[in-house]
Amino acid sequence: MNEADIRERARAFRAGHDPADRLAFLRARFDAGLAWVHFPTGHGGLGARRELQRVVDKELGDVPQLAPGKMAIGLGMAAPTILAFGTEEQKKRFLRPLWTGEEIWCQLFSEPGAGSDLATLATRAVRDGDEWVVDGQKVWTSGAHHSRWAILVARTDPGVPKHRGLSYFVCDMRAPGVEVRPLRQITGEAEFNEVFLTGVRLPDDLRLGEVGDGWRVAQTTLMNERVAIGGGDVRRGGGMIGMVADTWRERPEARTHDLHQRLLRLWVESEVTRLAGARLRAQLSAGQPGPEGSGMKLAFARLNQELTGLDLEMRRDEGLGYDDWTFRRSEAVDFVGRDPGYRYLRAKGNSIEGGTSEILRNIIAERVLGLPSEPRVDKDVPWKDLPR
Amino acid sequence: MTDLLYTQVEEELRAAVRDVLADRCPPAAVLGRIETASPYDLDLWRTLARDVGVAGLLVPESLGGAGASAREAAVVLEELGRAVAPVPFLGSAVLATSALLAAADASAEAASWVRRLAAGEVTAALAVPFSASPYRETGDTVTAGGDGALSGRVAAVAGASVADVLVVPAAGALYVVEAAHAGVEAAPSLDLTRQLATVTLWEAPAVRVAADLAGVRLALTAGAGLLAAEQLGVSDWCLDTTIAYVKERHQFARPVGSFQAIKHRLADLWFDVARARAAARAAADALATAKDVTEDAALPVAVAASWCSDVALHAAEEALQLHAGIGMTWEHPLHLYLKRAKSVQIALGTPGDHRAALAELADLPSPA
Ligand SMILES: Cc1cc2nc3c(=O)[nH]c(=O)nc-3n(C[C@H](O)[C@H](O)[C@H](O)COP(=O)(O)OP(=O)(O)OC[C@H]3O[C@@H](n4cnc5c(N)ncnc54)[C@H](O)[C@@H]3O)c2cc1C
User: Fold this and answer.
1) Contact (Cβ atoms closer than 8 angstroms) between residue B229 and residue B93
2) Nearest residue in B to A358, CA atom
3) How is domain A105-212 classified at the CATH fold level?
4) With a 6 A CB cut-off, is A156 part of the ligand 1 pocket?
């Protein structure tokens, strides 16, 4: 399906549907294959090239849009994983409400004892007939408080080395035994949570991929996560650098040569990073993102942190205040609506969430540059015998 | 929309240039000639200029060129940078040719030189210091007499020592002087693979080809944008060579490339180079498609020039540190890349000059 076909289809769809009923409109859009055109027909797409989504988004620019904040984990991580490893029934069941936003997803990966070393996680899933019984504790789970489903990695075989004994599930966040407790962040509110899983029963048809293949499935999620975090399509001078440039333009009295030099450097770095992202997207015609996306995520974190810090400095007295420390549940990360103090603090998480910058450098060094790994003491040892 | 990838045709051109360079310009050959009387390899230059046809890439077919664009010239420069090839492509086929091309509509003299340049019959140099930038006036060290003869001195001209003809900005206009009428004296250059020379004119007969310096500004803008591609090639060589070395070199019973301190530096460098590639492509594409180069391509050129300059130098410096002792030897080619990277950081506008230009181009006004 080429660009003209897709434009034609989008126009015809727009003409034939009333956007007044938001949900009905979004559902129909999914069914018409105009949700994500690179997905297969029947699952919200048309099997077209990924970049042709722009054509649809342009034609449907004036209709109800997704509210992507809360949906980021579903759209960016769960969906590509379900697409790659799900059965037909799983795709049918999950993808449409995920895309329309009727069902929100969260990510139950990290644990108190397993952060960067995710594969060492201890949450157990034990088979019981057609079900799995899950026990363990997850942590830093963003958005668990409004999620219907979660992607979950759990240990199904402690007797083999850590990477081999994992399986990947969809966890029903309404199942008995799932308990979500807020964790307050440095920004004041609680965007992430701890999640306790106690005797949670999940039917086997909520498993994604083979038993014992959970690490490979999780890799797909993580690669997509890094692209989702670092790979946004912004215009030149837009995004975070745009906000900081506006601070500069609006405050002639605060301008110093030192701030100017730093701003110009960051403007250049933002621009070359944007171009690298555009280049990456142009190369990534279809299929799964490779480890190159890790570079984007690294740069995005660095830039966000530098820029938000510079913004506060430019504001002087204003930079000494803060909008709201109230402990409350947050809806989503809000880099645009909140004040610069929040942006500065929240950006600190960018080099931690989705793989720390140190881990991303390891990944680039080993998988892109082919450098040898450090000596590993845990590689061939059964998980249950690892020192901890 | 900006095309940031390489086309099939561009890849074929790259392969052709790379083949010639692999055969005729290995590091040992470059090291062998830099201290001789002819550091530029004019045999290699003739092959590239005529047989591969790189001399006429920027010249339209109507003037006997290949009718290609800055995109193709950029690919050639990536390869020349990767090989630190001692040929006068940048000075002749980019800087001098662009300046003459801008004058060729109005001046038959300029058009005829462009034809000869495109055919690879002659080599030219733009008589400005290699440190000239698109943001400053040039030509203030040469004066034109009443009869049009030129007198003055221009230092640090790239490629002048092998030029048949000099394109000379003087007193606000552009002239052509045959090299036979000029004194050209090479002095030791920091970059051993791009010899610079001082040009001295003493009532030298000259032909005026343009009444202003718009063509020079255009040439310097195009030159700065395309130099970014050369810097990308230098970066590529430094990164690839260093990665290969740290995989081989063992200390503490491990490859040194397995130490995280080194892996992290190379991971960062890799993404700096990846961004240099995107920036250099964007600049080349803008130069190729701009209606008015000095207007429309100025911003992408300033971005690429500032970023790629710093990255190439950083890549060469990292390469030296990670090769350590062997990298400090004359015998290893690494120093050629360091010297090239440092020279081109200063050439055609420093990174700071290009960032300063962005204050206006990106609407980030300077402090009062
Ligand atoms: C805002 C935010 C939201 C998050 N949301 C989620 C979520 O929704 N779901 C989820 O599952 N997780 C989530 N996370 C968790 C995140 O993935 C982990 O915090 C992260 O993987 C790091 O783990 P850790 O915090 O245990 O740090 P550790 O792994 O303990 O790391 C401590 C330090 O050691 C360094 N380090 C560790 N190993 C190495 C190594 N091999 N080489 C070099 N340095 C190393 C790290 O880089 C870090 O600096 C979130 C985190 C944040 C900050």
Assistant:
1) no
2) B264
3) Butyryl-CoA Dehydrogenase, subunit A; domain 2 (2.40.110)
4) no
